[in-house]
Design goal:
Elements: E1 6-11, H1 15-26, E2 31-34, H2 41-46, H3 48-67, H4 81-105, E3 109-111, E4 115-119, E5 122-125, E6 130-138, E7 142-144, E8 170-174, H5 178-189, E9 193-197, H6 209-222, E10 225-227, E11 231-237, E12 243-248, E13 250-255, E14 257-260, E15 264-266, H7 273-276, E16 299-301, H8 312-327, E17 341-343, E18 349-353, H9 356-363, E19 366-373, H10 376-381, E20 387-394, E21 400-406, H11 410-422, H12 427-431
Parallel strand pairs: 1-2, 1-6, 2-3, 6-16, 8-9, 8-14, 9-10
Antiparallel strand pairs: 4-5, 5-6, 7-15, 11-12, 12-13, 17-18, 18-21, 19-20, 20-21
Helix pairs in contact: 1-8, 3-4, 3-5
Length: 448
Amino acid sequence: MADYDFDLFVIGAGSGGVRAARVSAGYGAKVAIAEEYRVGGTCVIRGCVPKKLLVYGAHFAEDLHDAKRFGWEVETPTFNWATLRDNVLADVDRLNKAYTETLDNNKVTTFLERATIAGPHEVKLASGKTVTAKVILIATGGWPVIPDFPGAEHGVTSNEVFHLDSLPKRVVIAGGGYIANEFAGIFHSLGSSVTLVNRSDTILRGYDEQIRDRLLQISMTKGIQYRFNCHFESIEKKEDGSLLASFCDHDPVEADLVLFAIGRRPNVEGLGLDQVGITITPHGAIPVDAHNKTNVDSIYAVGDVTDRVQLTPVAIREGHAFADTLFGDNPRTVDYDTIPSAVFSQPPLAGVGLTEAQARNKLGSIKVYSSDFRPMKNVLAGRNERSLYKMIVDATSDRVVGLHMIGPDAPEILQAAAIAVKAGLTKADFDATVALHPSMAEELVLMK
């Protein structure tokens, strides 16, 4: 490998890229990584980590209200957006530094500038410098989709929403996926009037129908407005800085913020893929084989840029498997079966395995068990919000093939339960487990 400047050059220092770089360097490879913005990637810098902190902050609105029923005399609380925003961004700074130190400690050379592919073994940096590598790994992640209609430039995406100068009083959110529903819950809890606009009549496609319907019911009861089968026509910015969002076949809505959360696309624009003949899918993703190799032998890709499963833990596993395979003498692939996922809405929902509809289509004969209950805390607080747990069982083998839930701490509970589903445990195994009482999680072993 002496003919190259580096054994491995990683383009993109997000979760997948950093893991691949660190592990490869640990195996003795000479590694470089380039990042044009900040080390840490979407999840750490402008995604799941700062968003989860906003979710925590927003949930205090309900907690402070409920505290009175538990004997706490709470004076009328006030909320300061700038305090939450600045503390969240400070934690992002901390994580950015921690990720950078991880690379430095593993002797990875970091280039804080844009990098593009100039050849099968060549990378060109924004400074004009060209470096060579035996292997190139693309880990540039995804980028928010911005719609094309008059005035769309007045909207923001999840990239900018963490930096707002003030809390908007009226928010229009475009989209029906997890980002849209999470920010709907955040802004509503913080006191904003929220209207969620969706092009179809379904939110959270891919999640169990009863679970997502329960979230819709709870959200509408709380006061979040929904408009289905609704398409943007234009956004007009008024003299006072407010926005007027107009739609096809729907009344216009006045807003202080329009947030686009209509999906994310692989971040490949201007990357130089055409320089080496790397093919992309119709949706702009880089197709790879089971070992993350593109159609060019020396170039690989992991994470959201491949558009396989857009989840941070998946990108990390792909990056680790790549390093093990190429530099650790331990060829392995990632198992994409039975991946748990969650939506940090209010309340949150989570699921693993087959939904009821998927199981009926795939297995035919199934049994569905459920528990629809009001959590103990909600009862005392006088909150009518109900949780729903569902267990999908293969009627032939008694194997649990899916678990889906909505309610307080659902993602925390599901992570442990997902192990049981992944391991192929049966309904009888769940039934044989003694309940941990009193808890919400005990419903998993009490369903009849």
